[in-house]
Design goal:
Blueprint: H1 5-23, H2 46-62, H3 66-79, H4 84-103, H5 107-119, H6 134-146
Helix pairs in contact: 1-2, 2-3, 2-4, 2-5, 3-4, 4-5
Length: 153
């Protein structure tokens, strides 16, 4: 049975940070050993890009659908509004994760492929990146028509 999206999202967050910490670069931790997101060193950067890509890739695998993973990712961006450049970064990286989900057999292989994608510059790791994700522009239109409060996940 597939997990509820909120539970799966939290599991993916932990798995992505664990993999990133062990295989790419150490991440800040609290005294209790949990990752410390309050430092600002895990948002709008490589770690954040990797987490978004990994989570969306896992959602594609778990729900057997890139479309469902895409819908849930867009819904998350509407439910938790961010500035346009941050939303663009998140949606771009979500798309990269879905792409590699199809090419991987399991979560470990997905993480390995995303590490390569990160090193090859496929992920957006800076809010100053000029690449644009088309859905970011479409989401602006959706929010204008329906507003963020009308979409629930």
């Amino acid at each position: 049975m597939t997990k509820h999206p909120n539970k799966l999202k939290e599991d993916c967050r932990q798995e992505a940070y664990d993999y990133y910490h062990e295989n790419i670069e150490p991440l800040p931790k609290k005294e209790d050993g949990s990752f410390d997101e309050s430092t600002g060193k895990m948002s709008n950067n490589e770690a954040d890009a990797f987490r978004h890509a990994y989570t969306s890739g896992v959602f594609s695998k778990e729900y057997y659908s890139k479309t469902i993973a895409d819908f849930l990712g867009q819904g998350n961006e509407i439910k938790n509004p961010n500035p346009e450049n941050q939303r663009n970064m998140d949606l771009w990286n979500n798309n990269v994760g879905r792409k590699y989900s199809k090419k991987s057999k399991n979560r470990q292989e997905l993480a390995q492929l995303l590490k390569i994608a990160l090193k090859n510059g496929e992920l957006i790791i800076s809010l100053d990146d000029l690449r644009k994700h088309m859905k970011s522009m479409r989401m602006r239109a959706i929010k204008t028509l329906w507003g963020p409060s009308s979409i629930h996940i």
